[in-house]
Amino acid sequence: TERSSSEVVGTKVLRKCLTALVVSAAVVQVCAYASSILIEERQQHEEVISQDEDEAIGGVIYDIARRVLMNIKESNSDHDELHRPLHPIETRDLYGFFFATLGLMVAAGGGIGGGGMLVPIYILVLGFSTKYAIPLSNVTVFGGAMANTILNWNKRHPLADRPLIDWDLILVMEPLTISGALMGAFINKLLPEKYLIICLVLLLSFTGFNTLKKAKKMYKKESILIKELEANSNEKESELTKLARKEEHGNDEESEGSLLDNMESSEYGPMDEVIDDDLQKILDEERSMPFSKIKALVLMFIVVLFINLMKGGGSLPSPLGITCGSTSFWLSNIIILVWIGLVSVFARNVLVQQYHKKQEVNFKYVEGDIKWDERATVVYPFVCMFAGFFAGMFGIGGGIVKGPLMLEMGVHPAVSSACSACMILFTSFTATTSFIVFGLLVKEYAYICFSIGFLATIVGQLGLNHVMKLLGNRSSFIAFSIGTVVLLSAFLMTIQYIVSVAEGHESQP
């Protein structure tokens, strides 16, 4: 038997994730080996300094680049750890908010948050330490995700009569993504920052270029479809003109019959189609919001948040006296993983039952739908766990990984954007709550950042929707938005790391 298209896509995505994991592991090993060799050579030849002409030129270039990068943060060297007050507002604050707004407007269409751009902006321009830049970035993303979800809540699927947000997809992706992020966070604590940055930039660059290539293919396909629709429209108009002329000459019956035949043989099928009662029931259920699934997701996040707060961390000691590395600490993490596993099993059972019901009534899937059979409900969650693992290991938001991942899975770009924003709303709310409790959120800036995230996202999404309508409802623009944000994140994170190394602030494991 031939494998379905969803199985083929799932296999391809899984292969890409495994390839990315193997490449990342290989890069870490190479970097570690190269670093050890360089350290040995430096110790052996510490007093021997010999530079040829190329090395001298390289030293000059490095010195110039270092001075330029140091000028970006020249006023940061003496600031206290928390950061100065917002008032009176300075020019650098205005620049920081301006660049953050631009980044959010670009990210709004893709629904991927833009945290990979915001953290470097808050560090390089606003002068925050990483400890406080990440919580501010998170609250900004939370504002943007809230705006995106509000805008998408009542939108309908572009190809079917159902909500734009695919809650089945979220129910499959989110639990395993969280478990992967939890495991990746442990790896993050073990590896040195420089190895993480190298792997992260390689991963984001690979993902960004792949997404832009996919967007380009989508754009070409859309162009062909638009031309075909225009040609078909012209043919239909000419056919109707002929019929009108026949009517003028008294051939009313003949023209009426031709018109009916034409309509019955059109690509839309017969006018009257008999729909089975069971099929009608499924269609009616899909037209409305599946609040039972939404409640399951909310409950999952509440339990995870509660356990995390009980563990404590940062500036908030555990109410139960749990310390990092203790038996209770690891037991708490195991409980979280078990709870997420139970939610995942529940989601799988629900979706597999739905799949078989749809098969029995010959449910017609549209382009971008995933058939949640026994295989897909195992392969795709496993792939999502890889995405969460990378997100947790590199300390980035899940949206920057899940957005491109959904496009690779063949999900419609509009659905991918809406689902990504909705998932980010859950995760960013949970993280923001934790940051507030741990005392890591600078409240003066947090109010401004949340407002910027909310308003910039509304402007960015409405602007992109307007451009898409003007140019023929091209969903490829959403994919272009995602790819652009991912590549910008890779570039800005590279700059941020170079600055931290130049200042001697590189963190150690």
Describe this structure in words.
It is a single chain. This protein has helices at 5-44, 53-72, 91-108, 115-124, 130-153, 167-190, 193-248, 252-264, 277-287, 291-311, 327-360, 376-394, 399-408, 413-438, 443-470, 476-503. It is built from 16 helices and no strands. The longest helix has 56 residues, at 193-248. The chain is globular. Helix 3 runs antiparallel to helix 16. The model is unreliable at 27-35, 46-51, 64-80 and 252-272 (pLDDT under 50). It is mainly alpha-helical and 509 residues long.
Summarize the structure.
The protein is mostly helical and 509 residues long. It is 75% helix and 0% strand. Mean pLDDT is 74; it is low at 27-35, 46-51, 64-80 and 252-272.
List keywords for this structure.
mainly alpha; 509 residues; 0% strand; globular
Give the helices and strands, then pairings.
Layout (H helix, E strand, L loop, with lengths): L4 H40 L8 H20 L18 H18 L6 H10 L5 H24 L13 H24 L2 H56 L3 H13 L12 H11 L3 H21 L15 H34 L15 H19 L4 H10 L4 H26 L4 H28 L5 H28 L6
Helix pairs in contact: 1-7, 1-12, 3-4, 3-15, 3-16, 4-5, 4-16, 5-14, 5-15, 6-10, 6-11, 6-12, 6-14, 7-8, 7-13, 7-16, 10-11, 10-14, 12-13, 13-14, 13-16
